[in-house]
Amino acid sequence: MIRAEIITIGDEILYGQITDTNTQWISAELDKIGIRTVRKSSVGDTEEAILQIFQEATDRADLVIVTGGLGPTKDDITKKTFCKYFNTTLEVHQEALTDLTEFFRKRGREVTGLNLGQAELPANATYIKNTMGTAPGMWFEQNGVVYISMPGVPYEMKGLMTLSLLPKIQEYFKTPVIFHKVIRTVGIGESLLAEMIDAWEDALPPHIKLAYLPSMGSVKLRLTGFGEDIKALEKEVEDKFEKVLPIIKDYVYGFGNEELEEAIGRLLKEKGYTVSTAESCTGGYLGHQFTKVAGSSAYFMGGIISYDNAVKINQLGVKAETLAQFGAVSEETVIEMSENIRKLCQTTFGLATSGIAGPDGGTTDKPVGTIWIAIASETQTITKKLQLGGFREQNIHLTAINILNLLRTTWL
């Protein structure tokens, strides 16, 4: 097992001024080549803190990856701190200077002032060319540990990793063959899913590991195999999945990277069905789930965001008596919403949502998180009441997942 630690440097990360997306992306890429990330750390722009985290990482990792602190200004001290850690000095690296000069020449500029310092590297560093920026990557080796330093700008970091460093890491560490297979489920919680496949999981061989990857409203099952022969490994992992699929088939909506909205869109397109939406509490979020998928114009015809009762009545055609007697958050209202939007847009299905997303607006009879959803076809209308009770964004998101899954399990 090759162990990696990822360190981000910069006060702006600690202060919450920018979001650290680098460590998530790097650890995911390392996982693909069989390297396990054992720790992620963030430190500020102080030499003492950086030196301390370097030493701690050296004691527990085989690979230490550092992002940030490589700019030309005085607060970017990563290179100088590496010099102190390795007891060396900065020197102009001729290849780095040549590449830096060419980078600026293509943009009609000369390398001057602070930017010249970008070509200075610790004497013991192996230069890694950055084709997307001026701060080069660096590779160090000491006492069996590899240290990699990259700029913190995400697209520059990803370019360095993809083009140069991931292949170099694989070659250096002779990483094992690794194969992932992912099943995506919806409509079932992690613990219940684990109980259903307990016997199957216990029967897995030691070189095949199962991971549960829960997210809001869904759970991914990732089976990872380690070995030496990729074709044999793929077949073995596929065989294991064929045995578990019949157990959980009712909850499986897709595989790999396919999101629920993509799977729904694929099924709608295959069957030649169309949909429209009438939204209250979700405020357009349900429609967005359809339209964020490329090619959704083949099956999503449009919708009405009927947030106010006047819009429900005047635009959507919900009866005033229905709203007066039962309220906006009711089965009767979403039935009319779903049936009317289907007729207005002339679609196969009409989907409707109405509820109390929160954080206020709830009552004793209808607390926050009370949601009604409905789907109308030409022959029938089905409804479901949700009692979510979470935060506003969570309630909106889960409402969309529930109605998409209701569409999947009923008609698709």
UniProtKB/TrEMBL annotation:
GO terms for molecular function: hydrolase activity. Residues 5-172 form the MoaB/Mog domain. InterPro entries: CinA, CinA-like_C, CinA_C, CinA_KH, Competence-induced_CinA, MoaB/Mog-like_dom_sf, MoaB/Mog_dom. Keywords: Hydrolase. PANTHER family: NICOTINAMIDE-NUCLEOTIDE AMIDOHYDROLASE PNCC, NMN AMIDOHYDROLASE-LIKE PROTEIN YFAY. Belongs to the CinA family. This is CinA-like protein. It comes from Arcicella rosea.
